[in-house]
Protein 1
Amino acid sequence: EIVVFWFRRDLRLCDNVGLYHALQSEYKVLPIFIFDKEVLEQFPNPLDKRLTYIHDAIAGIDNQLKSFGTGVLCFHSTALEVFSVLTKEYDIKAVYANEDYEPKTIKRDQQIGDYLGTYSIPFYLFKDQVIFRGGDILKQDGTPYQVYTPYAKKWREQLTNQHLYDYSIKLASELFYSINCAIPTLESLGYTHGVNGIIPPYVDLPIISNYDKYRDYPGIDGTSKLGVALRFGTISVRQCVKIALKENAVWLSELIWREFFSQILYLYPQVENHCFKSKYEAVQYRNNEEEFKAWCNGQTGYPIVDAGMRELNETGFMHNRVRMITASFLTKHLLIDWRWGEAYFAQQLLDYDLASNNGNWQWVAGCGCDAAPYFRVFNPTEQVKKFDKDFVYLDKWVPEWRELDYVQPIVEHKFARERVLKAFKQALGTD
Ligand code: FAD
């Protein structure tokens, strides 16, 4: 008789709500992880560094659990197949996991819950990924917020110590079902291990306490770089919020943006493929494939755009300010559908998260909730003057930008600005 704890995007042993509850049950816990074939299909690049990240995180947990006579039982299959095997091999009393709010995972979890139900096995899901999930923060009239500022105000008001409870538990051999298993190599899953692997999450307190001063300058190492850790749950959001409350209110507001977009995707799942404001579907994008390629490869002739794309392609990270500039350039200067850019970021970003990526792309494109007005078109040259005036970031990523034979600008700024304003006005009927 056992209970199963299923790791998903919560790859840590400490302060993990679902694991805490599994360990509190009267049965021994069998920890599992599924390299889900249906999920991996979306990540076809064998060099995808996120697989190294996940693999290293699982290996770390497995290693820690070895000292308690257990490990992480891994599968390379679909969730349904895994549970059909497990229910035959073990006498399972319950399955524990943490909630996930993406439309596809919600559907999958419903399917698994139904399947386990046929064996009368309860499937317990816990809120772990966020402080407040979709529907937890509502306006007085019971409807969700679609604008960030009042949402964030209510979020702060509603926060209590209870939300920041630490679910860490003292681990011991008798809590786990003893197994002796090896986790599969990345190569056996069809991926290549990144050169150095990926370092464990590290909270740099001086960076966080100075966050408000330096966060906007891509040439300065002024942001936490915790996006990927939050994405895969190698760090607990409760721990981050506790640090933010102590160190920096502006950093807290970023964590609230994350929850804002999480609730938008949960409550309005259609945003995955459609504009939040549907009238923006009428925008006639040009969708020129050559120009899209130039943007992807950092060859637009605008050094800040090219620097951002090259940072992304090389490292899997891009500074937030530059994410805004490159996204604005794609949608406004080149008039290419935000969904193309969103899909490209989804392939490249280590911290890729459907809710945050989609929400931010729609924000930049002007079609999202609480979006930047469509007539705000970032001027890439002015952005450099404001945020990289000593060209530290440009010199790092596009060292040839000062040379005469550097790529010619793909489109002239003033012309592009007028073109996009016309296209949006036409679409919105304000011409
Ligand atoms: P910090 O600046 O230290 O912020 C701390 C954490 O707060 C981040 O790790 C992240 O979890 C959260 N956060 C910060 N800003 C935002 C924001 N605007 N929206 C939502 N959460 C935020 N963030 C992602 O996590 N995944 C994405 O796929 C993603 N795609 C983006 C696409 C575009 C076009 C833009 C403009 C922004 C996107 N962001 C995304 C938001 C933001 O750029 C990154 O979260 C941030 O740059 C990550 O760096 P950091 O970890 O150093 O974060």
Protein 2
Amino acid sequence: RSFELINVLQRIVKKLSVTHQRNIEFKTHIKSLNAKLNQEQFIQLITIFIDNAIKYSDKDVVISLNQRNKNVILQIEDKGIGIPAESLDKIFNRFYRVDKARTRKTGGSGLGLYIAKEIAQTNDIGIDVQSELSQGTTVKLTIKEQYIEIFN
Ligand code: ATP
């Protein structure tokens, strides 16, 4: 089973921007991308990262899809509060939240990224998070060549 990833991505982006009343930019030069992945799990994975980008920033979220070598990189970028360096290796842990006191107006259980990691592992998707406090966070998901067919 495979699905057209750009269509699915645009549907998620549209839905989340309406739900959260936020602008989400989507950029790609790829015409069409067939992905041999679990579609439901892919939607869940992307939704978790976009939800976080929205939740922890108040500026536009930017999503981009690019080819790198034969793989595809899906990037989710926010210009929000960022993650402290010492927390970066913990954010995928079950129930971990940077702000334990929950003084933030944003609620959450700290399960989102734990689930995301599980889904990524199941689908052989790579996750790389770069973040700078008060500057923002960039998540790069690598979808490997054996799971995709790229049409330019
Ligand atoms: P939920 O389980 O409801 O998603 P959550 O957002 O607290 O709640 P995770 O998605 O697992 O849980 O994220 C874990 C922690 O990582 C968050 O509490 C937050 O501190 C930090 N975090 C995740 N994404 C971002 C981001 N884009 N910018 C800043 N901090 C982030």
